Amino acid sequence: MHDQPLPDILKWVEFDADLETVTLVTEGGKLQDLGIKIPSDMSYYIENAMELTTMLVKDGKVADFAIVPMLTRNTITN
């Protein structure tokens, strides 16, 4: 959920399992790191997600939403 419009159309979201970070990828190819680290105990759920829903909320109401693919990058193998 966000309360400000995104700067461009969101095409997909990437989760880097090694760095535990989330990056938004726009239609124009811009990358926007969310700037937060995902707690390790949440990583499992995010790694297994196939899509993500975003909602723009204005004045307590959903003004826009999108469902986009969720991709996981994971270079460390167990």
Give the number of domains: 1
Count of strand segments = 5
Instruction: State the low-pLDDT regions, or none.
Output: none
Helix and strand sequence: EEEHEE
Strand order of the largest sheet: 3-2-1-5-4
- Global Rg: 13 Å
- Structural class, by secondary structure, is mainly beta
**Averaged pLDDT:** 91
The level of helicity is 10-25%
Query: Beta fraction of the residues?
Result: over 45%
How many helices? 1
Shape designation: globular
Distance between the termini: 33 Å
| Major sheet description | 5 strands, mixed
What does this 3D model show about the protein?
It is built from 1 helix and 5 strands. The protein has 78 residues and is mainly beta. The chain has one domain. Helix content is 10%, strand content 53%. The chain has one helix at 40-47; strands spanning 10-16, 21-26, 31-37, 51-58, 61-73. The mean pLDDT is 91. It has a 5-stranded mixed sheet, with no helix packed on it.
Summary keywords:
5-stranded mixed β-sheet; mainly beta
Question: Which helices and strands, and how do they pair?
Answer:
Layout: E1 10-16, E2 21-26, E3 31-37, H1 40-47, E4 51-58, E5 61-73
Parallel strand pairs: 1-5
Antiparallel strand pairs: 1-2, 2-3, 4-5
